[in-house]
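task queued by scheduler; priority normal; single chain, no ligands, no partner chains; default sampling; output format set to structure tokens
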Amino acid sequence: MINVVRSLVFYAGYFFAMLISGVLFLPIAPFLPLAGRYRLLNLYNHFLMVWFRIACGVRYDIQGRERIPEGPCVIQANHQCEWETVFLQVMKPPVCTVLKRELLRIPIFGWGLRLLRPISLDRSKPARALKQVLSQGVARLGTGLSVLIFPEGTRVDPGVRKRYNKSGSVVACRAGVPVLPVAHNAGERWPGRYWVKRPGVLRVRIGEPIQTQGRTPDEVLAEVEAWIEGQLQEISEVPRPLVR
């Protein structure tokens, strides 16, 4: 029962903060340069990080921040819930996120996303989406933005393993930038398919940047997947499957 109450309190703050951001920040953001938009709109993500910890009794164990490179990179992380999409925005801003186009239609939230120049994909057209990721991803990296791509392509519940997609590794290899791997167990605290949050330790591991120059996307992807899955074996409370 206590988790239900905590979750209700959390969502009250969640939607109130979204409303305040929509009223105060969205009218200003279009008139700011891109870097300024990130700083302004990221205030909402910083609030959610703190509010989730306070309201839901979650403790953060985040290791490896010192490994985050200075320049642009392709961030690849396992995808379990909404929390990591928030954290990865504040971990290394500014970052361009590869996401499904439907998210841009959500009132307030989607309007803010549009202002941050994400790469929005139509999943009903996979061939076109892949070309879009490759061309726009390299272009965004060329402007100094990092690119966030979830190699699983969609949310995957804790304890489930899905085939990794190599589009992020292809983008990184073409642009000659490193891949920054990130592993976490956020879905155990913020279930992706259930609104009630769970207290406990939310663990994040940030790896050493994986160099791409002179390597094939398949080689890079294999290293990314091995590292993320190895970390998940250690930090997950839900057992990981050994094979896909």
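post-processing summary
- Strands lie at 58-63, 74-77, 95-100, 119-121, 146-149, 179-184, 200-206.
- The longest strand covers residues 200-206.
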